[in-house]
Amino acid sequence: MINIESQTLLSIFMPVLLLSICSGILLIGSLLYLFVYIFEKKRLFLSILIMGILGFIFTTSEVLVIILSAVQNSSMALFFHRVEAVSVIFYSFALPMLLSDILELGKKFRRFNTILYKTVFMISLILLSASIIYPELFLSSIKPEESIITPWNFGRGTPGILYRIRDIMIFFATFYTFITISADIIINRRVRYLGLILTGIIIGTISGGVDMIRGMMELERGLFSSRIYSYFGFGFTIFILLSMISVLRWFLDQTHDIDNARKVKSLGLFAGGIAHDFNNILSGVLGNTTLLMSSLREKKAENEILADIEKAVYRAKNLTMQLLTFSRGGTPVKDITSIKNIVEETARFVLTGSGIKPRIKCDNQLLHVEADAGQISQVIQNLVLNARDSMEDKGGYIDIKIDNVKIPSPLSRNRELSDYIKIEIKDYGIGISEHIIPYIFDPYYTTKGFGTGLGLSVSHSIVRSHGGDITVKSKPGEGTSFYIFLPATKQKKTPDLKSEIQYKQLTGKILIMDDDPHLRPMLKKMLEHIGLTAVCVPDGDNAIIEFNKAKKTNNPFNAIIMDLTISGGMGGVQTSAKIRELDETIPLVVASGYCDDPVMADYKHYGFSERLTKPFTLDDLRKAMSAVLKD
Question: Would you say residue 548 has pLDDT above 80?
Fold first, then answer.
């Protein structure tokens, strides 16, 4: 007798110990998510918290049923078995609730899923109420006549109709979850966050299925006559733990991304400010350089030196444009331009000093594009840099091919073919693994071990803002090909009017509004050099005062050049609105070092007649003033 009792105790001890450990882990996990939910107030954490509590109730009740059955307290054992069985009903509602917050299958799915989990919740409440009023409908205390009574099933009872309804609800909930998570993984490639949950669902489904089959087999002999504990308990616990880990991973990644975004935003503001101030400095250098070039046009040697200075300033200008694109996202300031020149200059510049050379092939009849040259240059730079880094140890060539193609618009459902420029940048480096490719355009994603992981993300954003697309093909060990598609235009590039207007003298009176005390006198000199007179003011308020004064003395201004941003004062947009109230016809020219500002991209929409992107040359100024003073 003592030997039998010892064996019985030993057989009960291990399941009780394992279930107690599961119960403790679920309790700790639930408390963690309760803490997170209190601070974050997100339904995702609430749904995980509900499942954690359900798992804790289930495993704790299972432990109590085994212990109470062993001590032959059948009434209390049956009570906790009913608690255990009822707790699982709400699992069929908590699962769809979780799916609403972790899946990205569109608004229609989310709407349907919300209706589903709310409906299942109401059914669960009805079944809970029925189990309280008629507990025998869930688990009956009456056992089959030939049932086997063991120390661990003494208080288990016999399944009723509600028990079977519960099993059906759980089956459909897990099947629905399996299908929807699999669909999200296939469509959105979100294995990192959904893979663990899917694994947990599979484990839970297998353990629950085994439980149901064993339960059906035990109907004649008595529930749990051939096993000590519910297999679903372990499967349920594993699923909840994997879900908790997955959501915690998502939460930590999101927190990391937010932290990175704050740093990048701060760095972006800093970079944008530097770029703006640097453009103002460059304006002084470039303006005075072009003034000298115009004055010394007969002296060839001096002009060559000044031309070199001009080229250096343009390279510095391209750098500031890239800083501005990084800092503000960058609305493209588009002009008709040759993509060939942008690609060639950028690729050669990036690869200077490395052991890698560009091989560039271009269609002889290549169309032009309407694009922001600085932003497209940044895209090419990012892709060529990545190609160079992947081949650093090999040397060799990066092949760049530029062609005219006809393809459907990547940003429209219209399947009609349109003219595009296709730029292929192919390297022969280490390549990219297939499972990494879906993530390479994600912000902060990098496999280099250095850098911010923003290069490809910014490039993708720039190409999309131009109405184009960027794709990639790669095989590990065979290299990588990036394909850029940009809308082409059959319009010709605006001819360089330099020869026509270079020495043309203009007449008129110009008001200059700029807060930089060093730029105002230089800009005045440039205007006087081309025949115009100028009055300078530091901000919008003074501009309006000077404008009214000139109007009253019958010596009005013929045009106004306005700086877009004025430190501590009224800027170009606000000032132009007030000027337009006084005079609707006067030409207004907006000038800014923030060359990527939406106002610069669509200046006519804001009431301006022309734009000047700092730094600008004497010819740029002459061209703009010729355009606004032509009448």
Answer: yes
Of 3.10.20.740, 3.40.50.2300, 3.30.460.20, 3.30.230.10, the CATH number of 278-331+500-631 is: 3.40.50.2300
Report which secondary-structure segment, H or E, holds 468: none
423 pLDDT more than 90: yes
Q: Over the Cα atoms of the chain, what is R_g?
A: 36
Contact yes or no for 470/411 (Cβ under 8 A): no
d(CA 51, CA 242): 12
Give the rounded percent of residues in the chain with a pLDDT score beyond 70.
Answer: 80
Q: Give the rounded distance of the alpha carbon of 95 from its chain centre.
A: 27
Nearest one of 87, 444, 45 to 250, comparing CA atoms: 45
Angle at 33 (CA atoms; ends 29, 34), nearest 5 degrees: 115
Q: CA separation (Å) from 93 to 97, 114, 238, 444? A: 6, 10, 18, 36
- DSSP character at residue 425: E
Q: Which comes out higher in pLDDT, residue 266 or 375?
A: 375
What is the Cα–Cα distance from 155 to 147, expressed in whole angstroms? 12
- C-alpha 381: how far from its chain's center? 21
**pTM score, two decimals?**
0.51
Please give the Cα distance from 409 to 229 (Å, whole number).
60
Q: Considering the chain, tell me which residue range(s) the CATH 1.20.1070.10 domain(s) occupy.
A: 2-260
Round to whole Å and give the CA distance between 189 and 104: 11
Helix (H, G, I), strand (E, B) or coil at 193: helix
Residue 102 token pair: 């972790």
C-alpha distances (whole Å) from 415 to each of 411, 485, 511 are 10, 16, 50
Q: How far, in Å, CA of 316 to CA of 314, rounded?
A: 5
Question: What rounded mean pLDDT belongs to the chain?
Answer: 80
Pairing of strands 479-489, 469-475: antiparallel
Closest CA to 612 of 630, 594, 588, 590: 590
Q: Helix, strand, or coil here: 431? A: coil
Where do you find CATH 3.40.50.2300 in the chain? 278-331+500-631
CA distance 374 to 499: 25
Q: How many CB atoms lie within 10 A of CB 263?
A: 11
Question: Cα–Cα distance between 145 and 494 in angstroms, integer?
Answer: 98
Distance CA 412, CA 420 (A): 14
User: What confidence score (pLDDT) does residue 497 get?
Assistant: 45
Strand (E) positions, 280-395? Answer: 335-337, 356-362, 368-371
Tell me the residue type at 251.
F
Element (H, E) at 105: none
Q: How confident is the model over 293-322, as a mean pLDDT?
A: 60
**Locate tokens 């040397």: which residue?**
395
* Per-residue pLDDT tens over the stretch 68-97: 888 888 888 888 888 888 888 888 888 888
The answer for residues whose C-beta is within 8 angstroms of residue 319's C-beta and 6 or more apart is none
Across residues 248-267, what is the average pLDDT? Answer: 65
**pLDDT above 90: percentage of residues in the chain:** 8
